[in-house]
From TrEMBL:
Superkingdom of source: Bacteria
Keywords: Isomerase
Pfam families in alphabetical order: PseudoU_synth_2
Domain Pseudouridine synthase RsuA/RluA-like: 16-160
Protein name as it appears in the record: RNA pseudouridine synthase
Family: Belongs to the pseudouridine synthase RluA family.
InterPro entries according to UniProt: PsdUridine_synth_cat_dom_sf, PsdUridine_synth_RluA-like_CS, PsdUridine_synth_RsuA/RluA, RluA_PseudoU_synthase
Length: 240
């Protein structure tokens, strides 16, 4: 896999923070067992020696991620995350048609430590997300997801509880998106296998607002990466 230049990922930078648009398939931090793979933390440290990643995105999830350049900057954002003061907005494409209007999901999540999570009302930790439909297609819905808490896989499992699994998210029964499902008369050669439009689940961290050390808001918008933008373009063309 070809890794992008760190500079090309930067959406915002000042003396305290860098915000990057994380590409899909790049981990946020060193993964357990240290495979030595390139990740956002390593790339950031090559760019700014004391860099610390302030929160993580799943490896397949793309989008805005905050990196602190100093310990003070890191503490400042860590406190904002702890107090639920960071405003995060994700976009997801889900299987099926849904009309979510400020749908509030409050289902506790238990992380079993094995890269999977479950809804567990007794043992789980509080998890809250608000969902709004942005655009309905014939077979899919583009959904705005606002996580209030930050549990592992929170958006993915909360959507799955509504039978609105994210497209391509096989862990939560989301099916990959094929052009043949939406383009009438689409034919594939007899011996060819049709590949999905996206090779991952369709989730992107689109928007972030947090306060800098001076108390002023830092507002970030992360453009869709190529695969997500292509999916939306094809949905607009063939599934609207």
């Amino acid at each position: 896999m070809k890794y992008p230049s760190f500079k090309d990922l930067i959406l915002f930078e000042n003396d305290d923070y860098i915000v990057v648009n994380k590409p899909p398939f790049v981990a946020s931090l060193d993964e357990r067992g240290g495979s030595g793979e390139v990740n956002i933390l390593r790339l950031a440290k090559q760019y700014s020696a004391d860099a610390q990643v302030c929160h993580r995105l799943d490896k397949e999830t793309s989008g805005a991620i905050i990196i602190a350049k100093t310990p003070d900057a890191y503490r400042n954002v860590a406190m904002q995350f702890e107090k639920r003061k960071v405003n995060k907005v994700y976009h997801a494409v889900v299987d099926g048609q849904f009309t979510f209007n400020e749908l509030f999901i409050d289902l506790p999540i238990l992380n079993d430590g094995n890269k999977s999570v479950t809804i567990d009302r007794k043992e789980g930790k509080r998890a809250e997300t608000i969902f709004n439909s942005i655009k309905n297609y014939r077979h899919y819905t583009l959904v705005e997801c606002k996580p209030i808490t930050g549990r592992m896989h929170q958006i993915r499992i909360h959507l799955a509880t509504q039978r609105a699994a994210i497209a391509g998210d096989d862990m939560y029964r989301g099916k990959p998106v094929f052009l043949s499902t939406m383009k009438k008369g689409y034919r594939i050669a007899k011996d060819d296998e049709e590949l999905p439009i996206m090779k991952r689940f369709a989730l992107h961290a689109r928007h972030l607002v947090f306060k800098g050390l001076d108390g002023n808001d830092i507002v970030i918008d992360a453009p869709y990466p190529k695969d997500f933008a292509t999916l939306i373009k094809l949905l607009d063309k063939f599934d609207a």
